[in-house]
Design goal:
By secondary structure, this protein is an alpha/beta fold. It folds into 2 domains: 2-154; 165-303, Rossmann fold (3-Layer(aba) Sandwich), CATH 3.40.50.2300. The chain contains 12 helices and 10 strands. The protein has helices spanning 8-22, 43-48, 53-76, 100-117, 132-154, 157-161, 163-169, 182-192, 204-214, 230-240, 255-264, 276-284, and strands at residues 2-4, 29-35, 82-85, 91-97, 122-126, 174-178, 197-201, 218-222, 246-250, 268-271. It has a 5-stranded mixed sheet with strand order 1-3-4-2-5, sandwiched between helices. A 5-stranded parallel sheet has the order 7-6-8-9-10, with helices on both faces. Helix 1 packs antiparallel against helix 5 (132-154) and helix 3 (53-76) runs antiparallel to helix 4. It is elongated.
Length: 309
């Protein structure tokens, strides 16, 4: 048995590619099982009260460690078994079975663990029938792990309190661009990095971690993000720092999106695709960014606005 608890999502991804590459080859059959302790997490409550995440995680870890301890001997009896223990308490079992006895041993182990943990939080994957659900699980564990890391950052009270102080004491402006589209993110970074320190985040969870870490002077955030969407991330960002200056981005200027962003507290809205002039103009409108040289071609106020016409 191999037990993986350090960066398990990355090891899981590597093995998943191995599983994918072996499909159709004359090798063993891959089986997997998930004990989803993380299903007990109430994400809405955690976002409202981030300090509750630590005791919640401690409780989930205790449950998963107790289950692992109870079945450790049975797991160790299966030499090729890989056991993943994730940050949110989830346990995933994975094994390449080459004989009927090995398949039977894995299935029996899963059934016993399911009886102990409860059917509602257990899931079985047989990649000989379909591997879609399994590969979706791999993707989900990356998103879920990033979400937990964001929650833990939100629970760091001392770091949260220092955000405005770190921003005010810094001389060079920092821009946080939250964009999951690689082309748009690179385009914006190429423009902004000429004048400002630029940080890129690809999801709402990454954005919260980056915001707490870098205390940016302005945030550009796409509304449509994987994991936490733009509105959820904006709401959480303003809860931890009511002075946050956030401009929302979207390829569609849907009235409801603009109104909702405005209600939550966005400082502006910028429609994609945007020109370099409009992007830099929006940065210079932030109260935390001081500019000696004014833009050569000022952009009208309604370009970066949350008003609806």
């Amino acid at each position: 048995m191999e037990f993986i608890s350090e960066s398990p999502e990355h090891h899981f991804l590597v093995i998943a590619e191995k599983v994918k590459a072996s499909k159709g080859a004359d090798k063993g059959d891959w089986l997997a099982a998930r004990i989803n302790f993380a299903s007990d997490i109430d994400h809405k409550k955690v976002l409202m009260k981030p300090l509750m995440i630590k005791p919640v995680l401690e409780e989930l870890q205790e449950k998963s460690e107790a289950l692992f301890s109870n079945f450790k001997q049975d797991m160790e009896a299966q030499d090729d078994l890989i056991v993943y223990h994730f940050l949110d308490g989830d346990i995933v079992l994975l094994r390449e079975t080459k004989t009927d006895d090995e398949k039977r041993a894995f299935t029996n182990l899963y059934n016993d663990m399911q009886a102990a943990a409860g059917k509602d939080i257990c899931e079985f994957f047989d990649m000989t029938k379909s591997d879609y659900a399994f590969h979706k699980l791999v993707d989900d564990k990356f998103i879920e792990t990033e979400k937990i890391r964001a929650y833990l950052s939100l629970a760091d009270v001392n770091k949260l309190r220092s955000i405005p102080l770190r921003r005010d004491r810094r001389e060079d402006p920092v821009v946080l661009m939250v964009e999951d589209d690689a082309f748009t993110a690179e385009y914006a970074e190429n423009i902004l990095s000429k004048e400002y320190t630029t940080v890129i985040a690809r999801s709402g969870e990454e954005a919260l971690i980056a915001y707490i870490e870098h205390a940016p002077d302005i945030v550009f955030m796409d509304i449509h993000l994987p994991g936490l969407n733009g509105h959820q991330t904006l709401n959480t960002m303003l809860r931890i720092d009511p002075r946050a200056h956030v401009v929302m981005l979207s390829v569609d200027a849907v009235k409801d999106n603009i109104v909702n962003a405005n209600k939550i507290g966005a400082a502006g809205f910028l429609k994609k695709p945007f020109s370099s002039d409009r992007l830099v103009h929006a940065v210079r409108k932030s109260p935390y960014v001081t500019t000696v040289v004014a833009p050569a071609d000022p952009v009208p106020d309604d370009v970066v606005s949350t008003s609806v016409h």
